[in-house]
């Protein structure tokens, strides 16, 4: 199981803009590096990250080999109601990882 | 291929190398030749693919990257757009490009009005001292951009594995 770290405030005031931070452990092999023998190391990256809140997409990122290993993403959202954030990372070689976090809005 | 018959002396690394050679040989007719570095022309065409014939204006976008980077393998980067995020007037997406990595794209971020603030932070790779460009697409169809020069002392992406 790949390790995901997600940081979402557990509580927020209604209407507040909150920051969401995510970190996924992944090599993000760019596909341009060579071994000592001169062979190209095949590409193995995360290509897509999606964040949904109560089922609706609120943020999506297309990632390229120029994203550093263990991709870190931080972005903002408005706390409108209590609910659950769902995070999904999709990558090469059938890589899929998910995480979720709940928030209470008062 | 004598070495294939000497399993006692074969390390995992050698085995992987052999497997890699076999795979490369079988895929040979499909190999396309790619340049090892994106050129400013590739940057221009990547931007053209995004904006089409629209005019890209300078401003609104802010790109925070350290101007001098020691290690190009992880460069912290924050992009933000000075624009409201309301249902009918918002930042649709932010696109990050570079000049000299093997590929001109770095990332595309798709935002929704509920974001509240058009700001994204991530960590990127830079293969050389070069220009990084951020372009924001607004809901009214206009494009705004900024470019930042970054000096990189240790390049990423194309080095040899240890």
From TrEMBL, chain A:
It comes from Bradyrhizobium denitrificans. The lineage of its organism: Bacteria, Pseudomonadati, Pseudomonadota, Alphaproteobacteria, Hyphomicrobiales. Residues 9-101 form the Sulphur oxidation protein SoxZ domain. This is Thiosulfate oxidation carrier complex protein SoxZ. Coiled coil: none annotated. It comes from the Bacteria. Signal peptide: none annotated. It holds the Pfam family SoxZ.
Automatic annotation (TrEMBL), chain B:
Residues 48-157 form the Ig-like SoxY domain. It holds the Pfam family SoxY. This is SoxY-related AACIE arm protein. It comes from Bradyrhizobium denitrificans.
């Amino acid at each position: 199981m790949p390790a995901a770290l997600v940081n979402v405030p557990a509580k927020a005031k209604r209407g507040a803009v909150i920051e969401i931070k995510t970190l996924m452990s992944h090599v993000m092999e760019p596909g341009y590096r060579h071994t000592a023998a001169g062979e190209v190391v095949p590409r193995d990256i995360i290509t897509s990250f999606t964040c949904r809140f109560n089922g609706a997409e609120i943020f999506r990122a297309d990632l390229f080999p120029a994203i550093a290993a263990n991709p870190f993403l931080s972005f903002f959202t408005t706390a409108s109601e209590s609910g659950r954030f769902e995070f999904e990372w999709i990558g090469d070689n059938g890589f899929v990882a998910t995480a979720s976090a709940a928030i209470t809005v008062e | 291929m004598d070495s294939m018959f000497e399993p006692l002396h074969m390390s995992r690394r050698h085995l992987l190398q052999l497997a890699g050679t076999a795979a490369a040989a079988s895929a040979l007719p499909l190999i396309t030749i790619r340049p090892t570095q994106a050129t400013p022309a590739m940057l221009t065409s990547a931007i053209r693919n995004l904006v089409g014939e629209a005019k890209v204006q300078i401003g609104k976008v802010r790109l925070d990257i350290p101007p001098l980077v020691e290690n190009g393998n992880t460069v912290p980067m924050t992009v933000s757009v000075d624009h409201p995020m309301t249902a009918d007037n918002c930042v649709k997406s932010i696109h990050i490009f570079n000049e000299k990595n093997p590929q001109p794209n770095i990332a595309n971020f798709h935002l929704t009005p509920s974001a509240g603030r058009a700001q994204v932070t991530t960590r990127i790779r830079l293969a050389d001292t070069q220009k990084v460009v951020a372009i924001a697409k607004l809901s009214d169809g206009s494009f705004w951009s900024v470019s930042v020069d970054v000096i990189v002392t240790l390049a990423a992406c194309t080095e040899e594995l240890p």
